[in-house]
Structure formats: C-alpha cells, structure tokens
Amino acid sequence: MQTNWWQNAVFYQVYPRSFQDSNGDGIGDIQGIIQRLDYLADLGVNVIWLSPVYQSPNVDNGYDISDYQAINPEYGSMVDMEQLIEAAKIRKIKIVMDLVVNHTSDQHPWFLEARKSKDNPYRDFYIWRDPATDGSVPNDLQSNFKGSAWAFDAVTGQYYLHFYAKEQPDLNWQNPKVREAVYQMMTWWLQKGIGGFRMDVIDLIGKEPDRKIKENGPQLHAYLQEMNARVLSQYDVVTVGETWGATPEIGQMYSNPNRHELSMIFQFEQINLDKQSGMTRWDLKPLIPAELHAVFSKWQLALDGVGWNSLFWSNHDLPRIVSRWGDDSQYREKSAQALAIYLHMLKGTPYIYQGEEIGMTNYPITSYHEIEDIESRRVYQQRQQQGYAISDILNGINAKGRDNARHPMQWNGKNQSGFTDGTPWLPVNPNYLEINVELAKQDERSIYATYQQLIKLRKRNAIIRQGRFENVPTGNQNVISYKRMLGEQSWLVIINLSKNRESYTLPIQHFGPNQKIISNNLLLNKIATSGVLQPYDALVVAIGNEEK
Ligand code: GLC
Ligand code: CA
Asked: What is the DSSP letter of 334?
C-alpha cells in the first residue's frame, strides 16, 4: 500500500483555551500557541489538531460556532491565525482545524435568519418539525447533553432539532445548499494552507430524525464521498472523523482509500470499556487490561491493509488517561510511560493530548460550583433529579467529566504554572509544583522523555509504522503483549497494566537477539518464555524471527 505523509506523522491536540495565555486575561490564545511551537517541535510532533478557535458564544467552549471564517477575539485575530500557520510551517508542523458542521451556534447568521419565518431562504438549513397533536415534542429523540433533542421556537410555532445544547441547532445535510456552503468554507480554509480537518461528530450528519436515526444514517458515506470529490481530493490533506458509533467494519468504510472518504477516524470502543453494560458512561466499572487489548487487537487486524487507525488515549472530552487507566499517585510516572509505550508501538497515527506527555492528572472537585463544562452540569442536574446521592454523582464526574482535561497546561513551577500572568479561566491543578514541563525536561527518565523517545523510534523504524501486528497471549489478564513484524524483523511488546507484580507465560520458545528497544524499568532488559513483571513494567525487545 502506498503511504501518505500522515501515516508517518505524530499529532498533538491543542485545546487553545488552556494551552498558553499571552496577554494575561487568563484565557489561552493563538499568540500563546506560537510561543510554544519550539516546545512542540522539540517533542517531535508533526501536526497540531487545534480545537475550535472560531467566533463562538462559547456555550460549548467553541463547539458552537457563529462564524466559521472569523476567529474568536478571545483567541486573537485572523492575522494571528495566519501567523500561526506560517510559524508552524517553518518548523515543519501542519495545523489541522476542527470542522464542526453537524451543527452551528444559534447565533450563526444562518440560524438567525432561519428562525424568522417558515419561508425564510435559510429555513431548510436546519431541521424543523410541527409539534405533536398535544403540542409536545415531535418525538422522543434525546440530546447527547441530556433532555429532549427538540427545542420549541415560539416565533414560528415549530420545534428545531439539536443533538447537543439547544444553542447548537443541527444543520440539515439533506439540503444541498448546506453542503455547498460547508464545502466553500472548507476550501477557504484549505487555501490558507492548513493541513486538514478533524471532523466533529461527523457520524451524525446522515441523521434521519423522523426515523429516529442519529448516527450512521443511510446517506452518511455518500455525503463524505461528495465532500471528498468536491473539496478534499483537491489537496494533500489529512482528515480524521470523530465517530463514536464506529465498528471495525464501519471504520473500514471511512478509511479505505478506495472509497475516497476520510484518512482515518477516532473510534471509541476502548473508551467505553469502563462503563457498566447497558448503563451510561457515568456508571463506572474497573478496567480489565485484557479487554482493552482485545479491542485494540481487533481494530489493528480489521484495518490492516484496508484502512488506517488513529491511536489515542485522551482528548478534551475524556478524563486524563493516567488517572483513568494508570495510577495517578504511587505509579504515576511508570504507569503513564507504560500506557504510552503500549499505544505508540501500535500501527496507526498517534495523537497526544496536551499535558499527556508530562502525565497531567484529573482535577477532583467537591461541589457543583466547580463544574464549568455544560455536559457535566447537565449530568449533575439530571442525576440529582433521579435521586442519586451527591457523592455518587461527584464520583462519576471526577472520574469521567470533561473539565478534567481542560485545566491549564502545567509549564513550570511559577505562579499559575506559567500558563498565565492573570487569573486562569479554570484553576491550575495544585500538583503543578511536581508535575510540569520544566521539571520533566530536566529529567532524562521522565514521561516527557519517554514520549520524545517513542516519537523518535517511530520516525526511525519502519516496523512501527508499517509492520504487521500479531496478538500474543500471556496467560494473565493484567499482562498484555503483542508483536510487530516487518521482513526479518520481529519486535515484542509486553506490559503489566496493573499495580501488582504479575507473572506471564508466552507461547514463544526461542528468542533471537532479545535486544531492548525501550522500557520504563532500568532493570528490565530481556524477556523469557515465562517470568514476573513489576507493577506497570513495560518493555519492547527485538526478538528476531523466532520461526527460523
Ligand atoms: C464533540 C466535541 C465535543 C462537543 C461535541 C459537540 O464530541 O469533541 O467537545 O461538545 O462534539 O460539538
Ligand atoms: Ca489570552
């Protein structure tokens, strides 16, 4: 298979509000990102996925856009944005924009027009339905932020659809004029020299509300193929779709190059492993490493040669990975390194979320007033009405809430962790004195150093980028292992993803050179047919071709 530049690249997600403030107003901004480009170049990343910086009333922190071709003044101006693209380019870093086109803000001029009258030319840009005969909502479709997905608009006496907040009305993709307007906007950005798009909840655009179809609607792939033909195919860009409802079969459809849709998707099957079955993601259960590995193995094999995987642990909607599936106290460094080694040795394009590379942790809260995120606020209110105990509600939000990943980046041990000279919009985690970039860069065994080394290894070794994947059983559900193979080369990855000592037995009798590639334990250099691993031990060894 021919390889594309984005298959050899490592991505880094910047959540602009929390990355670096340059003017002391407590809000991260574009000039702040420019100041930190050398840091990102030094880490070794090739692409920045920038969460939304567009004009927005910020009901959902920028995922409610009121002008796709203007920058939110909190973040800077279009000139700043052009500077960022240019300054990044000098460092061989591309900027990928967040494309949020399942919905707009209710302050977008299209919606302001649409709600004026039933015969307004923009009316069909959105999805309007008459009330049911008793005046209530057209049907029982639910918003992903809780409550009905329908909001009543008194001006015309109809309901409009919103799969997120009522201030985020859903666009009507069945209307060719909507698609045309989106394609024009995308082209405008591509001509500015961006490297592509991350597509927000893109699997919802084929919605058919009357049949209660939200994700994976019948026209979804046809729309993406049209978008590809009209826009994407004209540029050498990367696209990654956010698709909560993807199975490996659906993943093949999106990312098979012969189908001309997207480069890759974010699939979330592993993310749902710690929820009780049949319950919401706020109802937790412990993670079993073997189940995690089963999901990754399935996707590795399903997309091999016919599509392409993205690899990620975290983003702005998910808790900090070291707090979730690692151990954010005693084994913080070691478990963060184990998770990094596990993910970055897989086949696909890795994504690092800001602060993950220094092992930033969740930010526990003790009351409703500390919640900033719209989703967590809704969840709190709904669960309170349903009679849950406050401590249970807070436990769920502390474990899974979206604010966890949105607290300011911890750059150094100075006031406000070097994020701002003013008062940050969300408080800095008090652990910034021990967990910050400056300290991590001085320590050659830090989590940061591991990430930097993993990126270098990927750049230098085709086996990581292109090698075949094979699952290796270990006889222990807490120890996960796999092989990567290319030509005569064979590498073995083995990880103890628990805080206990664990034993393993591998179905391998002979190890060739058994030469260490990377490990998070100085004493762990070789692997044998069976043995014992210390808590969160992770090791990658070249084992040669044991079949010979
Ligand atoms: C995506 C975004 C999330 C946002 C939602 C609605 O899931 O990642 O932050 O709230 O879409 O746009
Ligand atoms: Ca600022």
From this structure: H
